[in-house]
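User: These chains co-purify. Model them together.
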Amino acid sequence: MVRFLIRRILGGIFVVLVVTLAVFVLFGPVLRWHSNISPARLYAGKNPSAEQIERVSALLGLDKPYYVQYGYTLKRLVLGPSQDERERVCPGSTAAECDQLLGRFGSSFAKQRSVDSLIWDHFPVTLSLTFVAAIMWLLISIPIGIISAIRPRSLFDRVSIVFVLIGQSLPVYYFGLLALYFLAYKLGWFPLSGYEPLSNPGQWLYHLLLPASVLALQFAAIYVRITRSQMLDTLSEDYVRTARAKGAGETRVVIRHAFRNAMLPIVTMFGLDLGLLLGGAILIEVTFGLQGLGWLAVQAAKRLDVPTTAGIVLFSAIIIVAANIVVDLVNASLDPRIRLE
Amino acid sequence: MRLLTVDDLRTTFRTDDGPVGAVDGVSLSVDAGQVLGIVGESGCGKSALSLSIMGLLPKSATITGSIRLGEQELVGLAGSELRQLRGDDMAMIFQDPMTSLNPVMRIGEQLIEAIRLHQRVSKAEARRLAVDGLAAVGIPSPEDRMRAYPLELSGGMRQRVMIAMALLNRPRLLIADEPTTALDVTTQAQILELMRELRREVDAAIVLITHDLGVVAELCDEVAVMYAGRIVERAPVAELFAHPQHPYTWGLLASLPGRSGAEERLYQIPGTPPSLLHPPAGCRFAPRCAFAMDACRTDPAPLLTATARAGSAVACRLDQTTRDREGVRLSGTEAER
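Assistant: Joint model of the two components:
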């Protein structure tokens, strides 16, 4: 079990390394070559002179060869900014002031802030949205999926299939706009946009309810389908017949024997989906004006804020890798077949 | 004491192509302490018969007729009442121990569940009973095995666990559906030996479903031969091997290996079993029977009737002399005995 964990963590670190390299190449040399955009130029302000660009280049360390730049980027990601860079980027300021300007993910020249602080400012919004939506879609989809599987081809099952089809085929931005127009604008049941921090739980939930529902509906559709098919599979297993032969009641058979086995692939999918959403649910966040990571990424991309965009991509990748490891751990704890191999 | 009485049982499955009569008018009875073997090839309805008795048929199946456990009628019994009998008064052992135990539950958890579904005992007491149950079926260090998951046990050990689980609540009726089929030959012998021992200890009526006449010879008191949803012959086990009465039984016996010399090809009954969707009009074995007369193909099949041999009954039009003569000749039993 410990070896399994160590192997997964090493694998995860390798994936993150590959992503850092891809991000570095994409947002450095490729961007420069393709669009003639260099961070130094962007940082230097409007219509800079060649001399200004050169000075900024030296300031940001962009005059060094690429491999040196990449090596430094990695080192900064792991250990934080070096004293040398701190002195170059924020001369004469205190450590706390400099932390606001420069972090492990670098510095946003558009906002004059560290990318780290931007991510930590916006991440709670994405986290809250994902959390509320995830609870909603699990609560909706798992009971529906189970009942559909117990009574296949029943009216309930057919209605739920229609629900799945609608949920899966409506794009969130379209469905989100409809919900906003009718439920928030016309009826005034929900706020039109915005986010309230968790310090005010009632308002927090009130502001998240509509976007989370729209997000949850889409995922619920997928989860109904997978729960139903998994349950149909496990309900026809021999050990379910054994449970019935023991004299177990239907509820016990369905929950303790069938669902306990059916939920293993659902847990896997759930973990991966959470990881994906925590990296920013761009469409939902933009539609509902929720200033989460996805929203931040769009803003940064529009402003050509390269360090922020790159930072969010890297941060999302780390979250997804972490989610994968957590999924493996949870699966191993739920399924002895994985644990004991 | 008569424990299980099945009378004119008909089990029909609803399918997309039409109704399939998997069990078609089966009657049988088993006494306490007796082992009844039910023999037949795949698809002859033996599993449908056992699932009918246990009330474990899928929703697409309907049954008519009568199944009595002691004095209690099981056909038409409400689901909850049947559930209380299952695992308590009647228990079942299944064919494939690799898939019959829940892979994500510890052995102990599954055994304790079986006990606590029917006995009002504490967890600790149930645990003790479960350990005893494992010890009784010859599982070494049962305390440790309680914590094991099914995948940590071999097929033979898993089948022992299944047997222990079936016996935990001291059932009056035990149905074993091909309990050795999925096991390798050495393990088969061990499980058969275990069942032979248990037979003496538990005073239950046992219905043993198998396609293996060797297993029948070792374990059973009586045998019922099933063909295409019907019982075609029923006899005490020695009688069946000495004087088989039905042409289908002759074929079964003749196709056993090791009876007619090692170098010879095994005997094969010509033709294939009929489709139960559209079974033959008369005797269902007639299309494959070398002795079939016109009446066999057109008139309704004869009912199971007593023969001149003690305790034996057959559903066949042939006369006693022909049956005795051809039975011995064709199944090659004389040479063996």
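Chain B touches chain A through 30 residues (CB under 8 Å).
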